Amino acid sequence: MHVDDGAHLSTSPSLTAELKHILSVTYGSKPGYPLSWHDKISEYCGINFIHHPDGSLQAHMGPHIQEFLTKEGMDALPGALTPALPDFLDPPSNPEPFDPKTYQSTQGGLVFLNPIRSDIKTFVNHLSSFNNNPTQSHRDKQIHIMRYLKAYPNEGPRFSSDPANYPHGPQLSSDADCSFATLPNSQSLSGILYFIGTNNAAYASF
């Protein structure tokens, strides 16, 4: 079974109305493919959204992070104030090899958080370069990142809807699409486009 879903987030009501009109004209008349709109989206593909009274929108992955940390056995460990210690880029202090399969599994979970958790992105990407030959030191750094996530699970960007906060005019918007189990190996695909005004500012696919 193929399930297709998409999301559009924007601080611009006019841009949202234009997109809904285009989608309705293009797909709304096809039998068997009804379009439904959720104007106050609260969760999409592990990302949660908070609609603040001032009209701003905040994205975070708190529930997903908490589930991920429990799976990684982090419930008994304390949180950490920072995502990394000063010696993060130093050579491994404990060169004892660590199980690559376990390391890669944790790394995959951390990489999934990167689009929302920019505060850990640099450290997570650095640790990805050791996927084939991780050491105990690299594992300890993974654990420290997860301790930081435990202390701050609900952090994420907040986007204002007030035009006064965009003195140069263009506003931020994003579109996401995902397909479930559509590849021959039953894997799924997701993609996100970020726009500033009408210009593509960033792209992520996983």
Please give a structural write-up.
This protein is of the alpha+beta class and 206 residues long. The protein has 5 helices and 8 strands. It has a 4-stranded antiparallel sheet with strand order 1-6-7-8, covered by helices on one side. Strands 2-3-4-5 form a 4-stranded antiparallel sheet. The longest helix has 16 residues, at 136-151. It is globular, with a radius of gyration of 20 Å. The mean pLDDT is 83.
Uncertain runs: none
Q: Sheet with the most strands?
A: 4 strands, antiparallel
The helix fraction, in percent, is 25-40%
Judging from the principal axes of the Cα atoms, what is the shape? globular
Structural class: alpha+beta
Tally of individual helices = 5
User: End-to-end span in angstroms?
Assistant: 20 Å
Kindly estimate the percentage of residues that lie in beta strands according to DSSP: 15-25%
The count of strands amounts to 8
Radius of gyration: 20 Å
String of helices and strands: EHEEEHHHHEEEE
Spatial order of the strands in the main sheet? 1-6-7-8
In round numbers, the mean pLDDT is: 83
